[in-house]
Amino acid sequence: FYLNDFNKAAAYYDSAAQRNVSADKLPENFRATELAESFGNYTRIKSDIALQDSLLKLGQMNQQEFDSALVQLKEQRLEELKRLQEERQDQQNQLVTVNEEETQDASSLTNGFLNSNNPALQANARQQFMAIWGNRPLADNWRVEELIDYSSLQDDSEEEQMTGGNEQSELAQVRIDLSRIPFEEQEQDSVRKLIAGSQYELGNLMFLSLDMPDSAIHYFKLAIENPSSESVNMVSLYSLSELYASQGDQDQAMKYARRLVDEYPTSNYASRVAETYGLESPVRELNSIDIVEIYNSLSSMDSVSSVVKADSLRSFALRNKTHPIAPQALSEAIRAYMEAGKEQEGYQTKL
């Protein structure tokens, strides 16, 4: 994959997927469309991580560091805007020639009103559009352009250039949206969790789509090393155990399986690895005993009304619906509701 240059790989497979080539001329197991999507997702997720990481670093700076970084960002953005303006001007100066025959064909009225259906005119219009705009976006990191408000830069900047310009004035006109920078600790924790979630996504992509287990392990480890949500941490531990097992490294597989059982003993993932490796979960066993004891306690509540007893048994059954005793609790709750109905005033009268 272009010596691990996944950005180039994404561009390559995207171009390959758009070419109409006979299947018999393609290599065996040619998966351009699938790989284009996978590498495209890779570049998207990596860009998101880079953006969130940059915002996090900005939020952690002191005032002096932040002011200095802000000036650098404005200078970089100003140079980029000037470069884009020059590129656009060069593209607008390109001439698209149309031969005389196409011009004569354009005068015919056989191609719809004002020759709107004329293939030659349509092709010419497309060429002119591409000459001006090209395949936008052309700038690196174009996703972060929305953070920059450069609408105040005026088209009459040529006049300033002729008179020597005023770079400080231009720099002051470049505005950067600071609303997404996490200055508070709680906001920074949220960004760290977003980064960990994206790292898990990359690990999953490497594991399931690109068949790169070593890279998947790297990103899953990053996800559990960084502050992450409980769900991300849990599935990352499970994925690490599965990956090491598939590689024949039982020691590492057992390590992450045991950690999963210790940290999330009541999860379905813990149940799977506990069954696979013969691990015991004391918490789960204790919970099973407690569930039976709770049911016995609810079932023997004779000092409360039938409605209260029925509601308690029903809630218990719904909370523990995977336990073997849940159907029995639900059946008893139904009987208690029936008893509650009989206790209501007017029941005997209606009979």
Describe the structure.
The structure is a single chain. The chain is mostly helical. The chain has 4 domains: 1-60, no CATH class; 62-106 and 119-183, no CATH class; 203-277, Serine Threonine Protein Phosphatase 5, Tetratricopeptide repeat; 284-350. Helices cover 68% and strands 1% of the residues. The termini are far apart.
Count the E strands: 2
Termini distance? 81 Å
Q: Looking at the structure, what is the overall shape?
A: elongated
Radius of gyration using CA atoms only:
33 Å
Number of structural domains: 4
Report the structural category: mainly alpha
The percent range for strand residues is under 5%
Mean pLDDT score = 74
Order of helices and strands: HHHHHEHHEHHHHHHHHH
Treating each run of at least 4 consecutive H or I residues as one helix, how many helices? 16
Concise account of the structure shown:
This protein has about 350 residues and is mainly α. It has helices at about 5-20, 30-60, 65-90, 100-105, 120-135, 155-160, 165-175, 185-210, 215-225, 230-245, 250-265, 270-275, 280-300, 305-320, 325-345, 345-350, and strands at about 150, 175.
